[in-house]
Structure formats: C-alpha cells, structure tokens
Amino acid sequence: MIFIILGRPLTICDATVPTTTTLLCLSEVCEFDYQLYTFTYVTRNGSNSSLLRFNFRHDSMFWALDGVQVIDSVSFAPVIANGGFETINSNDSWTVCNPSNSCFPGEISSNYSRTGQYSYLDGAMNNPDYLVQLFPTVSGRLYFVSFWLKNLGSGVNNATITIGS
Ligand SMILES: *[C@@H]1O[C@H](CO)[C@@H](O)[C@H](O)[C@H]1NC(C)=O
Ligand SMILES: *[C@@H]1O[C@H](CO)[C@@H](O)[C@H](O)[C@H]1NC(C)=O
Ligand SMILES: *[C@@H]1O[C@H](CO)[C@@H](O)[C@H](O)[C@H]1NC(C)=O
Ligand SMILES: *[C@@H]1O[C@H](CO)[C@@H](O)[C@H](O)[C@H]1NC(C)=O
Ligand SMILES: *[C@@H]1O[C@H](CO)[C@@H](O)[C@H](O)[C@H]1NC(C)=O
Ligand SMILES: [Ca+2]
C-alpha cells in the first residue's frame, strides 16, 4: 500500500470491561461501499460504562468507518462522542491501540468520509489494531448502536466489532 494518509495518528491504549459481546465479524470479504450496520445492546447489570471496540486488519487496503452512534433507548440521547470523527484534535473520545505495531494503523483521514470532512481509516497489516471508546451508560439499559463501514478492497482482511460493559 502506498497511500498517504493525512491526520493525527492515535496511539493511546484504553480500558477493558468485564463482559464483551461481538456485534459483527467480517473476514476475507470483498470490497463494498459504505453500509449501515445497526444493533441493540443491553448493558450489564451493575455497570456504569460501556466500551465499543473496532478491531481491524487489512493486508492490502483499508477499512473506512464513519457515523458511529450509540443512543440511549430511554432518553434518546447520544452517548458516544465524536462518532463522525470530525473533532480530530480531541482526546476525549476515541483511542487506537496497536499492540503488534502493525503498519498502516488507524488514523483519522479526509479521504473517505461518508459525512462531514473526516472518517476513520484503518489498514493494519498482518495483525489487527483496534479503535475504542469508553462512555458512560446506565446499568441494564437498552442502547441502539449503529455505524457505517466501507471495505476498500478484498484479500486478507478482518473487521470484528465488539461492545461490552
Ligand atoms: C441488578 O442489580 C441489582 C443490584 O445488585 C439487583 O437488585 C437487581 O435484582 C439486578 N437486576 C437484574 C435484572 O439482574
Ligand atoms: C463506575 O463503576 C466503577 C466500578 O464499579 C467505580 O469504581 C466508579 O466509581 C463508578 N463511577 C461512577 C461515576 O459511578
Ligand atoms: C492528547 O494527548 C496526548 C498524549 O497524552 C498529548 O500529547 C496531546 O497534547 C493531547 N492533545 C490535546 C488536544 O489535548
Ligand atoms: C488521500 O488524500 C490526499 C490528500 O488530499 C491525496 O493526496 C491522496 O491521493 C489521497 N489518497 C487516496 C488513496 O485517495
Ligand atoms: C478476526 O479478528 C478477530 C479480532 O481480532 C479475531 O478474534 C478473529 O480470530 C479473526 N478472524 C479471522 C478469521 O482472522
Ligand atoms: Ca465524518
């Protein structure tokens, strides 16, 4: 890959939570344009926060992610920050962990935004890296989770999205 990606590299690792559910697992899939994925999630009883995690590996191209939303089913308030990746200099939302020091780890980029100016772009080679956000949630409550995901090419790839609380 010879793409030049503009944007602030994100390198900070983040927290874990006691329970984790897999929302989506794609592996060795062909190229596809932005597609909306929607899920419901009920937080663990006794928890006060949730962790949304996007694991990405792409050996030949990139995954693009935009429009991430988590909505409280009671108040209808959005509970995730910077879901459109527009606030590139903020430290209060997403972090990326690249434990295997993969080439082409996740970055915010202006090349493939779905809405606004920026999206998240991840081409971690050989081993996955992951994008996480920890956010406050109400114990035992239903949340609506959604995001737009685009696959820029076929070959060896993997997108595994989990949520936990
Ligand atoms: C949730 O936790 C509270 C406090 O521990 C307990 O009283 C309640 O029964 C639990 N509810 C469920 C649905 O497990
Ligand atoms: C959330 O839960 C953790 C672990 O149970 C606790 O240490 C923390 O104080 C809680 N935070 C709030 C804001 O209640
Ligand atoms: C974000 O965090 C990094 C690492 O702690 C720090 O160097 C940087 O100044 C912070 N950026 C902002 C905008 O707070
Ligand atoms: C990404 O954007 C930069 C800056 O606009 C541009 O130079 C580059 O060609 C773009 N790369 C791709 C793969 O579109
Ligand atoms: C896809 O990635 C997930 C998370 O990193 C991993 O648990 C899973 O084994 C991978 N699947 C394949 C087929 O590579
Ligand atoms: Ca955006």
Number of strands: 10
Distance between the termini: 36 Å
Give me the CATH fold name.
Answer: Jelly Rolls
**Strand neighbour order, sheet with most strands:** 1-10-3-8-5
Helical content band: under 10%
How many domains would you count in the coordinates? 1
Averaging pLDDT over every residue, what do you get?
A: 91
User: What is the architecture at the second tier of CATH?
Assistant: Sandwich
**Gyration radius, to the nearest Å?**
15 Å
Helical stretch tally: 0
General description of the model:
The chain has strands at residues 20-27, 32-42, 49-58, 63-72, 95-97, 107-109, 119-122, 129-136, 142-151, 157-164. The chain has 165 residues and is mostly beta strands. The protein has a single domain (20-164), classed as Jelly Rolls, CATH 2.60.120. The strands form two sheets. A five-stranded antiparallel beta sheet has the order 1-10-3-8-5, with no helix packed on it. The chain has a five-stranded antiparallel beta sheet with strand order 2-9-4-7-6, with no helix packed on it. The N and C termini lie far apart (36 Å). Residues 27, 55, 128, 158, 160 line the site of one 2-acetamido-2-deoxy-beta-D-glucopyranose.
